[in-house]
Design a protein that fits this description.
The structure holds 2 protein chains of 2 kinds. Chain A is built from 4 helices and 9 strands; from the N terminus they run E-H-E-E-H-E-E-H-E-E-H-E-E. Chain A is α+β, with helices and mostly antiparallel strands. Chain B has 3 domains: 171 residues, Rossmann fold (3-Layer(aba) Sandwich), CATH 3.40.50; 172 residues, TPP-binding domain (Rossmann fold, 3-Layer(aba) Sandwich); 182 residues, Rossmann fold, CATH 3.40.50.970. Classes of the chains: A alpha+beta, B alpha/beta. The structure holds thiamine diphosphate (TPP) and magnesium ion (MG).
Amino acid sequence: MRRIISVLLENEAGALSRVVGLFAQRNYNIESLTVAPTEDATLSRLTLTTLGDDQKIEQITKQLNKLIEVVKVVDLTEGEHVERELMLVKLRAVGAQRAEIKRTADIFRGQIVDATDAAYTVQIVGVSSKLDAFLRAVGELSILEVVRSGVSGLARGEKVVSA
Amino acid sequence: MELLSGGEALIRALQDEGVEYIFGYPGGAALHIYDAIFQQQAVEHVLVRHEQAATHMADAYARVTGKPGVALVTSGPGATNAVTGLATAFMDSIPMVVISGQVQSDLIGTDSFQETDMVGISRPVVKHSFMVKSAEEMAEVVKKAFYIASSGRPGPVVIDVPKDTTDPGYRVPYHYPESVSLRSYNPATRGHPRQIRKAVDLLLAAKRPIIYSGGGVIQGNASEPLIALAKRLNLPVTNTLMGLGAYPSTDPQFLGMLGMHGSYPANMAMHHSDLIFAVGARFDDRVTNDPKKFCPDAKVIHIDVDPASISKIIPTEVPIVGPALNVLTELLTVLEDRLLEAPELLDRQAREAWWAQIEGWRRHSDFDHDQRHRNEAEAIIKPQTVVQALYRATGGDAYITSDVGQHQMFAAQYYRFDAPRRWVNSGGLGTMGYGLPAAMGVKLAFPEAVVACVTGEGSIQMNIQELSTCRQYGLPIKIINVNNQALGMVRQWQDMQYAGRHSGSVYQDSLPDFVALAESYGHVGLRVTDPAKLDETMAEVFSPALRDRLVFLDVAVDQNEHVYPMWVRGGALCDMVLSKTERS
Ligand SMILES: Cc1ncc(C[n+]2csc(CCOP(=O)(O)OP(=O)(O)O)c2C)c(N)n1
Ligand SMILES: [Mg+2]
């Protein structure tokens, strides 16, 4: 099962490498990983998606918690949550393709954020499966380049993850 | 406030932490620190001959005293040589602080001379690591390192010290913090009361309970309540390799070590139990064999200070996160209360039936009653009898360190440890070369104690250079070299699994004359080959005449001996090979 794990981390040199190292060392998989500072300058927030059964996820959470610089670990998928990923796609766009891409981007509530005679760059925000669906819709042939941010997420409601 | 350089602050902080010894080896990046060491007396530096040995000495010092050991190495090769020792301490949860010199801050990342990313290299084998950023933060980093190393589940911590942060020309006010608090690190201090009550209920309901205890009981100083619990409920006890001594081995309720080379009664009792009371043990693969076949009828109570150890391998009915000492003490109180209100809960009949079954296994095969390993035809010394002779010669009252191999298993099986912190070996990593430096660390910790290293001719050669350190510091340890002229444990596996193809496990007559070697370092060398002379030679090793000398006893033993019991790979705990011709 796919899980989204949110980690509050001391904003210190080397802290991120311990998290990433842990996953490599213990043979846990990382599907995506995002990390950036938070409203509190001493903390970074890291969101990662991984695959595993309950026992595996329990171990991952426990092992993360053992890292001295990890302040908090939450499995967002345990409760209701909002998740978003951002994707930029550069597409070949000539002739009739231009209108077609524009239409598809509209359907996915995407925006064209850069354009030349021959290419469009489209930005799509949503859950990861929506991003996948957009890529399928435009078709492999027109895709020149894809960059995805990885998943970010928050629990729904008033609940917060804090130090 | 007093002004100190970063190097001086580092050493002063060690003094303030109560450190007695630094085991170390100098080099360019560490020279400011070495100069600070020179100018004080409170902390003694012990110059080793290889950095790996420094880490093992610090590690063994910690194992027997309970206080973190300290090693100091230089950057680059000094740091990388310390990695095996870090990993050894990490696997066995030993509190240790390793200080590594580092190139000066502005050279980091430029591939400068003797630069290595120590924090990066050591990351998977440390509990935590620090890179000192300035002289100002030196004292606080040291305090944090000791706190982290010795609290919760203990482990090694690295402090990487760039040379400029120890510059004697730059002085800063020195203050050693009383305590530190880390918002992200709060090890459990007591077990959950509801879980403890559940554990008591399970213990009282069980018909075939057994205590399975490990190194956590020793590290956690929880031997006393463990014994009290076993006595109160008349429970059989087995220890892991790391847990030996936590429960007195000569006590009738002790079944021996369990696992791959565990005793027949211990493994049988585990397999047939209906409740495993696990404390400070981690269901390591050398204990469980195939986890799917592990103790099919048993529920599990698991007490551990590290939540990640619980339900990692074997699902647990009652997890209790907390230090063994506090949890066991509270559990005893709850147990007494329960028995006061309902004494009938103590099912003596069931316990007697369980013991009757266990006694049956004991009669079938037990080290004490076993004739299998006696000196056949009195022609050649059996390695097991070397350990038995050692036990007799030391009255069972020595500190025993060991290396890795058959001799280690024989030492674990045949030396009876009646107190914690007496048995010092690399259980988790299985580091050959550990035994000699470990014995040195123990001897420095307890100069009056009898310290013996049970080793093999393979292992001893991995750190034999330390005989020179022993000479320099006058360390009269006793080395018992169980010499089977082969990497015996490897050869055993090749005998059992590879039709006797001894690939890379024999030395073709290239072994040194160990007696002459010991003598060349200024020590006493002895050799024994005749079983009839074993006891008297062993007595000589420990005789008052040689009290102040390092004695190296080279014992020629049967090359073909195997360690038994040996479990059947991929089987259950009850599946054992008992001798070359016998299975359970
Ligand atoms: C550093 C290291 N390298 C390799 C091994 C693998 N190994 C385990 S036991 C053993 C043989 C040990 O030989 P010896 O010290 O003579 O002990 P014996 O088994 O003969 O008693 C080896 C090579 C190890 N444990 N440690
Ligand atoms: Mg050998």
